[in-house]
Write a structure and sequence with these properties.
alpha/beta, 36 helices, 6 domains, Rossmann fold
Length: about 900
């Protein structure tokens, strides 16, 4: 069978699966069904034969052009367009030219709808059903893309300014038919509310048939449903759910009248597999937990009961990054617009959404707008948590199964030495947990001066067993009962986890909740004032999500209802017991960067000309906090003294002046240039200076305002300082000791980004094209580039910087590095690898896996073949790949060269080398 014949067999099957009746022309019956696909249909003179002519309800409606697998389909569009115009005049047609055009190979399918404005080819997972094409044959604008061009302005919706911009920018992106859009908004800034507003407008004004709201955990789906139920429409104030059916899937059956469907990606995959139900426990775990189980992308097959056009728009809410790798086939199944919602996009996120960032609203802007509160870091160090410990032989120690938790006691035969990374996994040092909790208890008057009630605190533990230990010790050290501290994990029994979360939000108890990752993302606990890390975190995005649990603002009365001696939530505190804030995980630093400088001193130094960015940021943070504490009378007084500017507006101006986007806008305005103009560094510096000068002007020129600000600030605060006498090595607000390493790592990432199109190795590693693999010469080019002035970096210095910042994710810091280790550095910087591991170690691991696969498949290697395979593996580790010509050099030449290699492996040598290059250098 020829490749084209094979393609047609596959296309026949796909058309039939989508509900088309596939016929030969000689036996055609266009009335045999709603949709009929007729093979090899002759067109008007000069137009040739259409591989398939599509009839919808008895009229010609489209064509399919079949090509062999591997054919670039965008080059076929002209041919398909010619067929669309070639229908004989005497035949009935839904429109001329025929509107529905497909190019297909059986493996890939592209589709153009000429009924759309500015028709544009797009990749589709599968052919549409005849019913879907029939739906597009109404009066214009008959397609969603056509209707998107006529959306009314965003008007009466009760939106914050950032939410309004997000909706407007998204609708502009959709009107431009951009298939993927990304909304980045800080945690707590109302991403979901903005998405619901957009969904409402798409259904009401663009007649979107169905909207899918995709989450990665069941409790986030339940939370999303509540937000849809609480949403009031801007037209008449009715609930969204009174107007449109919103279905939160708890079974694998979609209500045919549902306009919004909320589900986990796990359940959606189960439906695409044709399963009747999904294991509900699997839905309760995030995709991050499943990623370790699933190593290969999940396979997806076409389902007639869930056609590709079933959803018009898919909102992807804070899904784990594995949706772009392991689960991306599920997300890409539908011929729908994809809209991502996130506070913490990774490089993979930007890549998946085609760098179409329609909204960027970060933590500083959210603090300035009183949408978020700022944070501080309080660091607790202990000897064991930093260094591990040693137990002498002969000592009695307890041992227990982590799941059953039943202890038994035995005497150590040998000395036990363990490092910090073994804590609470292989070894439980109860006194280490106790020392941390006791220190936290004793330092609460320092962390939150003047409080007698423990602020609402969320503790992140390493696993469920660790959480059990922490809860027990918290209750003991605070001398409180069961209600005071609760474990909220997937294994909590006796009460639904969401009921415990609701109590944590709205009731006095629990004061302290201990979790692993259940409350890490998306869960809204506004009264939370302390986030404590007793576990390390390897993912930057996950850390930002966990940290984001504390940023939510809350009404004073709601806060006092659960924490009686609180006055206002103007910040939260990260209590870091593992050094997570000292790694390079955090993209967001506190706005308060001059904690040791008093408020009055900050105002004074700005008055006398200091325009340092840290000073401006700290002053903006202090003003934003102060504004949250003010009464109406004080706020009005200060606003009058500032010439009509409220303290929050003064804060916003200061923080906006440091925003790179605002600086770029200012530079373009000054240069009278358009949005595509790229300002020079000098122009950006000038713009920053101008914005700062404008922002500080009310403070610099109004001495009475400054004096009153200091007076009110002093009257609103009480400071209590206690120095405990325990065994802590160090406790206090964090001062970043890793600046140099962080600067180096940041510069390294910037170098990769700036040079990805100039240096071939970066180009290959960045885009990872399947057919182009690295050569050793390309690796050397990259190594020479980083060693050249002005950088003068070495692999060792970069490796050590990462080891200092992210020790738990780095291996081989003290090893002697090969030149190929630069590949590992690039892949780690691009977040393609979760650990920084020497390239040779990666090759060793992949070789062992390849060898095991060969042997499982029945392949047996002789001792001599194994020796040669070992040399080949070492060559790949040092040179990235191997070719047959390499056998003419050491160490192969001394052992018989290429001739001996063929003698050892036979004619399959070339195929085997290609396979090893594929497997070992992946």
């Amino acid at each position: 069978m020829t490749p084209e014949a094979a393609a047609r067999v596959a296309i026949d099957a796909q058309l039939a699966a989508a509900g088309w009746v596939v016929q030969d022309r000689d036996a055609a019956n266009p009335k045999a069904g709603l949709g009929v696909a007729i093979r090899e249909f002759p067109l008007a003179a000069g137009h040739g034969f259409a591989d398939y002519l599509l009839y919808v309800d008895g009229k010609a409606a489209g064509v399919v052009e079949a090509k062999p697998e591997g054919t670039p389909l965008s080059g076929v569009e002209i041919q398909t367009g010619r067929y669309a115009q070639g229908l004989p005049a005497y035949l009935p047609a839904v429109a001329r030219p025929l509107p529905f055009l497909y190019e297909a190979t059986g493996e890939e399918c592209r589709f153009t709808n000429l009924l759309d404005p500015e028709p544009r080819s797009r990749r589709v997972f599968h052919f549409h059903t005849p019913e879907e094409l029939a739906d597009w044959l109404g009066p214009p604008p008959s397609t969603l893309r056509g209707r998107l061009a006529g959306l009314p302005p965003v008007g009466g919706e009760k939106l914050w300014a950032a939410q309004r911009r997000a909706v407007e920018n998204l609708e502009r992106s959709l009107a431009e038919q951009r298939p993927r859009s990304l909304i980045q908004m800080a945690t707590g800034s109302g991403k979901t509310f903005a998405a619901i507003t957009a969904a409402y407008r798409l259904i009401k004004h663009a007649d979107a048939r169905r909207v899918l709201f995709l989450v990665d955990r069941a409790n986030l789906g339940r939370q999303a449903l509540k937000e849809f139920q609480l949403y009031r429409t801007p037209d008449d104030g009715r609930a969204f759910t009174d107007l449109y059916n919103v279905q939160h899937l708890t079974s694998n059956k979609i209500d045919p009248v549902a306009r919004v469907v909320i589900t986990t990606i796990q359940r959606l995959y189960s439906m695409l597999q044709g399963e009747e139900a999904v294991d509900e426990e699997r839905e309760e775990h995030s995709l991050a937990a499943l990623e370790g189980v699933l190593q290969e992308p999940v396979p997806v097959a076409y389902r007639r009961d869930l056609p590709v056009g079933f959803f018009d728009v898919v909102f992807i809410d804070e899904c784990h990054r594995s949706i772009y790798t392991l689960w991306r086939q599920v997300v890409e199944y539908f011929d729908a617009f994809l809209v991502g919602l996130t506070a913490t996009p990774s490089r993979q996120t930007f890549g998946f959404f085609e760098r179409n960032l329609v909204m960027e609203y970060g933590h500083p802007q959210a603090v300035a707008d009183r949408v978020n509160v700022d944070f501080e870091v309080y660091r607790i160090r202990t000897r064991i948590s930093e260094e591990g410990s040693q137990v002498e032989a002969g000592a009695w120690v307890g041992k227990r199964d982590r799941r059953r938790r039943v202890p038994r006691w035995e005497r150590l035969d040998d000395e036990l030495t363990y490092g910090a990374s073994a804590l609470d996994r292989a070894v439980v040092a109860r006194d280490q947990i106790r020392t941390v909790i006791r220190t936290f208890r004793d330092r609460l008057p320092e962390i939150f001066p003047g409080r007698t009630h423990v602020p609402k605190t969320l503790i992140f533990a390493k696993d469920d067993s660790h959480a059990e230990d922490v809860v027990e010790i918290v209750r003991q050290e605070f001398a409180k009962g069961n209600d005071f501290a609760q474990k909220i994990t997937y294994r909590t029994t006796g009460a639904k986890p969401e009921d415990l979360i609701q109590a944590f939000r709205t009731a006095y108890d629990p004061r302290i909740a201990v979790t692993v990752d259940m409350i890490a993302t998306g869960t809204d606990v506004k009264p939370l004032e302390i986030v404590m890390f007793l576990r390390a975190v390897k993912s930057r995005n996950f850390f930002e999500q966990m940290k984001g649990r504390g940023v939510r603002v809350i009404d004073r009365n709601d806060l006092v209802a659960v924490t009686p001696d609180a006055t206002v939530k103007d910040h939260f505190v990260i209590v870091d017991c593992v050094g997570v804030t000292e790694t390079d995980l955090s993209d967001t630093q506190p706005l308060e960067r001059k904690r040791s400088v008093g408020f009055g001193k900050l105002l004074e130094t700005v008055t006398f000309g200091n325009r340092d960015a840290d000073v401006i940021s700290s002053l903006g943070s202090r003003l934003a906090r102060l504004d949250l504490r003010l009464g109406d009378a004080e706020r009005g007084e200060l606003t009058g003294l500032a010439g009509g500017l409220a303290p929050r507006h003064l804060a916003a101006a200061l923080l906006d002046a440091l925003d790179p986007d605002r600086q770029a806008e200012q530079a373009r305005r000054t240069a009278v240039a358009g949005p595509d103009f790229e300002p020079t560094p000098e122009q950006l510096d000038a713009a920053e200076a101008a914005l700062i000068e404008e922002a500080v002007e009310p403070l610099v020129t109004r001495a009475e305002l400054r004096a009153r600000l200091v007076e009110i600030k002093r009257a609103s605060e009480q400071v209590i300082d206690e120095v405990s006498q325990d065994q802590i090595l160090d406790a206090g607000f964090s001062r970043d000791s890793a600046d140099r390493a962080r600067t180096l790592v940041t510069s390294w990432r910037e170098f990769i980004e700036e040079n990805r199109d100039q240096i071939t190795a970066l180009q290959v590693l960045y885009s990872r094209p399947y057919r182009h693999r690295l050569s050793f010469a390309e690796v050397k080019e990259l190594a020479y580039a980083i060693e050249a002035p002005p950088r003068r970096w070495t692999i060792e210095t970069l490796w050590n910087a990462y080891d200092q910042l992210e020790h738990d994710r780095v291996r081989g810091a003290s090893a002697q590095h090969l030149l190929t280790d630069i590949v590992s550095l690039v892949r780690f910087a691009l977040e393609q690898d979760d650990e920084l591991v020497p390239y040779q170690s990666r090759v060793d691991e992949r070789f062992a896996s390849w060898l095991a696969q060969q042997e499982q498949g029945g392949k047996r290697f002789s001792d001599e073949q194994r020796r040669w395979l070992g040399w080949i593996k070492k060559h790949v580790a040092a040179n990235v790949r191997i070719e047959v010509e390499d056998f003419e050099y050491a160490p192969f030449a001394q052992r018989g060269g290429v001739g001996k290699a063929y003698e050892v492996f036979g004619e399959g040598l070339g195929v085997m080398l290609e396979e090893l290059n594929e497997e070992l250098a992946a």
